[in-house]
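Q: Hi! First time doing this. I have a protein sequence and I read that you can turn it into a structure. Is that right? Here it is:
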Amino acid sequence: MALGFTVLARIYSCSRCSVALFFCLLISYVVVGTSKDKINNTDTDTVHSHSVKPTSKLKPSVTIQNSTRPNVVIFFADDMGYGDLPFYGHPTSFTPNLNKLATGGLVFTQFYSSSPICTPSRAGLLTGRYATRSGTYPGVFRPDDIGGLPLNETTIAEALKPSGYRTGMIGKWHLGYGENGQYHPSHQGFDWYRGIPYTHAECPCFACYYPNAPCIETPCQPQFVDCPLFSNTTIVKQPVDLLTLEADYANSAVDFIEWNVKEGVPFFLYYALHHLHVPIYSGKDFTNRTIRGHYGDALAELDWAVGQVVSALESLSIDNNTLVFFSSDNGPCLGMKEFGGSAGLLKCGKSTTYEGGQRVPGIAYWPGKITPGYTPHLASTLDLLPTICSLAGAPLPKVVLDGYDISGVLLKNQESPRETFYYYPPSPDPKYGVYAVRYKQYKAHFYTSGASNSKCHDPDCDPGNFQVRDPPLLFDLHHDPSERFDLGGKQSSESWIRLLTELKVKFDSGMVWAPSQFDRGKNESYQPCCKSGCVSHFTECCKCDASEAVPEYFRSHLYHRSLT
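A: Yes, that's right. Below is the predicted 3D structure, encoded as structure tokens:
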């Protein structure tokens, strides 16, 4: 305990951290540091510490990787809010593995996803470009959409492959599937893929909680085929079993890492978690195990999966040559109440351009390279592609990028090259352009709108209340991250409003809008199906379990790790 206070005192003395942040961390430390004792004194119905510890045992025959190029692992959570984690202030979340990353890494307090919804935020992360440039707007891809992330867009995976990297992806793709899997990850630079190519919310619902409890907090979507589990381009199971899915993913991630270490190949692993999107689900070792309810159980399972991967890096002695980055695709789905996460002190959540919609957790972890601490420097998922390319010595794609190289922030405690951030709504329109602009600590809202995903106690977050803000709302996010006190009416703020307006006009006029991929329409027969003979009644026909199609290397190890 004394050591914890010493660490906090050192953080407090850091010029980058505020007094308020110190007390927030202090509270988080006390909660996390005593959580085990509290849990052990709780009824057995809610204990969860002993059955979810990562205990993966790696094969001793695996050789140590010998490469000067760093490996890269990106964890991308789904719908995780800024206030969902203990080190961002949540009092009852159980995330020992993420806490470890935060303690040993750099925690961003002003980190942004490129969009407040799933598909465009994923396009932004992988390409370093706003979705308006790639046509991955408005909304999110469904299983029957014809379009997808255009193949001429360069993903992080495609940028790294010429530099000798092996690239793998696990989990939620959500950037289109198309005819015969035209937009499958294997066509976007990934050598290996295991996952569902869209959200598990776009499938019929089955069991969500062990042993066989139904999904209770969201309607099913029986109009689509059962969720398919892909191994590379082969569907190995349809429908997928949500209760064993995260264990499958975590084991496969470790196998992918071992495979590359054994062959001495630098790797990029993009692990896009389905947690914590509704329907919330959790497996045997996590259901009814936390005091935060179903959402807390799912979060604990997510945390366990992160722990499995990080433990593998450590066991293979490559953690000091691997950049691990954790973030979320957008803010929490507040409309789902206790199933939808927390934005903490931020305003509104998913599908809005208020801070709760796009300011998300951001953690960079690289032992021996990144100095642990907290940073208020501005950064975004858009910055990951140029940063990773810089660290790997890979050339940047020859396109307009919206991201910056923040390797100096990560490795040298330098100022961030990012001073601006532009906020697009879920359905961007050239008529309006960006809804809000941030420059340094000041943010101007030119348009605002709530959303069903953000419906809560704040009427500004409710759906159907689009408003033109003339004059713009103005907030100082260093003083008022909750966006409560509009500075727009003060004479002293006129120069800031004028500057932010000029930035908006310049950015909007310079944006080259790609044609929307969603305008290409839908085709029911394009849905992924494990049987080639299904020409009608897809939901009844597309069912199979073809585990023998798993690649040989992964097949032998896929289920060899116990959760307990």
